[in-house]
Amino acid sequence: MNVAAEIPWERAIAALEGIEQITDPNQLTKLSQDYYHFSPILAAQLVDKRADLVVRPTSEVDVLRVAQVCARYHIPLTVRGAGTGNYGQCVPLQGGIVLDLIKLNQIHSIRQGVAVVDPGVRLANFDKQARPQGWEWRMYPSTYRTATIGGFFGGGSGGIGSITYGQLRDRGNLNAVRVVTLENYPQVLELRGDAVQQVNHAYGTNGVITRLEVPLAPAYDWAESIITFPDLTTAARFGQALGDSDGLVKKLVTVCAPSVCQYLTALQDYLPQGQACALVMIAESSLEPFRELVREFNGKITYEKSAIEAQKGISLAEFTWNHTTLHARAIDANLTYLQTFYFTVERVLELEQQFGDEVMIHLEFMRVEGRVMPAGLQLVRYSTPERLKEIIALHEAAGCAIADPHTYILEDGGRKVIDPVQLAFKEFVDPQGLCNPGKMRGWSEKYPRGRVGQV
Ligand SMILES: Cc1cc2nc3c(=O)[nH]c(=O)nc-3n(C[C@H](O)[C@H](O)[C@H](O)COP(=O)(O)OP(=O)(O)OC[C@H]3O[C@@H](n4cnc5c(N)ncnc54)[C@H](O)[C@@H]3O)c2cc1C
Fold it and tell me: Whose CA is nearest to atom 17 of ligand 1?
């Protein structure tokens, strides 16, 4: 449904005077999209969704004005960071306004291991300022160079650093946020401690985050290594052993089956054909014991860069997480992917046997509730929607948990259950259901005809 026809746009636009507004049709299309096309299912569903207007505030006061205009004229509002999400999280299903926060990007403070930042701060830009002071983000997505911190908490889950710090949703990875509400008289709320979970990974469905207080990690000098192994079994066991080695300081442990390595064309000099690999970021101070672990598994180090050398070219991180999918799709656009908690290496190997080359194994080791385990961003040779569903069901039947990347619905992509805390917060801060409408199943089921008139 596009509700644009009923909106008094002239009045809305006049009320937003002084805030940058974008109406050029090409720009509107571009700023209404993300990387949903990684999924053939979403590609078909979202291709024609477009905002009627994009606005670019530069301050929280501007955001309050936009919120008030949306509330007054019943305009759907979809927040956008850098638009690098994978599931159409920032695609405006019902048109309306896209609130592009890329210019709300001040770093307010970096003090005693805690940063206070605006949501539009790009992750890599922040680290450039924090690292000379001895700090860095605890984790970041492989889209680090473009993605924003607001978008990472709004729509991401974890990434490079999750091997040590778990996921964004874990208690302690976000201290506090300021949130602008979509009430008739919008206010700014400050949420601290567990209260932040009301908006953490909510796809911007329940308010606009205008400031974040984020705990940091001590900055290490990260060396980068590629290690090759004759088969996936050895590579995966090595990945688990490295993850379990508490004395080795690491930021990234990625493992790819030989079938996946073939798609990392820029690294082919270091990836002998038919071999599996591990891509690793390890503190320089841990390199000596790390090499001993590699020897224990008969791995071969084919690439090693010191931290200073690694800063010069493209980081290995840009071949991991969903960048692996990006590189593979550049060669074969028929490939798509899954996001799977395997929990154990044994289960990875069982499922590798079951699916062969239809599901090619790419693992990211990460800490989940205190234990390191393999998560998969497997490459899938796409045939039909039915087969994709069947592959997901077979993984679940084998004991895996899948975070489905082929849906834009918040709950269906995650834990499959409605989060009553996020829903209750939406009822409070967004009584008309204007924030990113159509994305929260809990809301659509409770208010199928919209909430106005029912309450
Ligand atoms: C090649 C590739 C690799 C990727 N790798 C990873 C990875 O390693 N880990 C990972 O977690 N993700 C990954 N992603 C997904 C995505 O890049 C990240 O999650 C990224 O952090 C999103 O940031 P963004 O600024 O682009 O957010 P956007 O895509 O603009 O927004 C994401 C969601 O957050 C909401 N949002 C944005 N800002 C706010 C705000 N201020 N208040 C409330 N809601 C807000 C939006 O409405 C949207 O629902 C990858 C994507 C691609 C294409």
Answer: 84
Mutation test of ligand 1: which of 79, 165, 177, 323 has the most ligand atoms closer than 8 Å to its C-beta? 79
Among 143, 167, 336, 366, which residue has the most ligand 1 atoms within 8 Å of its CB, making it the best to mutate? 143
How far is ligand 1, taken at its centre, from the CA of residue 296, in Å?
A: 38
- CA 139 – ligand 1 centroid, Å: 13
Which of 102, 152, 196 to mutate for ligand 1's pocket (most ligand atoms within 8 Å of CB)?
152
Q: State yes or no: pLDDT of 2 exceeds 60.
A: no
pLDDT of residue 274: 97
Element (H, E) at 396: helix 385-397
**Residue 1 has what pLDDT?**
52
**CA 435 / ligand 1 centre spacing (Å):** 17
Does 208 contact ligand 1 (Cβ within 6 A)? Answer: yes
Residue with CA nearest ligand 1 atom 31: 151
pLDDT reading at 144 higher than 90: yes
How remote is the CA of residue 59 from the centroid of ligand 1, in Å? Answer: 21
Domains belonging to the chain, first-starting first, are: 107-218 (3.30.465.10), 222-402 (3.40.462.40)
- Angle at Cα 214 formed by Cα 209 and Cα 218, nearest 5°? 155
Q: Check residue 13 and give its pLDDT.
A: 96
Q: Check if 161 has its Cβ closer than 6 Å to any atom of ligand 1.
A: no
- Ligand 1 within 6 A of CB of 342: no
**Which tens digits make up the pLDDT trace of 63-82?**
999 999 999 999 999 999 99
pLDDT 10s digits, 332-376: 999 999 999 999 999 999 999 999 999 999 999 999 999 999 999
Instruction: Tell me what percent of the chain is helix, strand and coil, each rounded to the nearest 5.
Output: 40, 25, 40
Give the pair of three-digit tokens for residue 404. 């489905």
Query: Which residue, chain included where needed, has tokens 């000379």?
Result: 132
Question: What SS3 class is residue 209?
Answer: strand
| Full strand arrangement of the beta sheet holding 401-402 | 300-305, 222-229, 276-283, 250-256, 362-368, 371-376, 340-341, 401-402
**H-helix segments, 139-206:** 149-155, 162-165
How many CB atoms lie under 10 A from the CB of residue 315? Answer: 21
User: Residue 34: which pLDDT band, with cuts at 50, 70 and 90?
Assistant: very high
**Phi, psi (rounded to 5 degrees) for 25:** -55, -40
Query: What pTM did the predictor assign?
Result: 0.97
From 79, 58, 103, select the one nearest 429 (Cα to Cα): 79
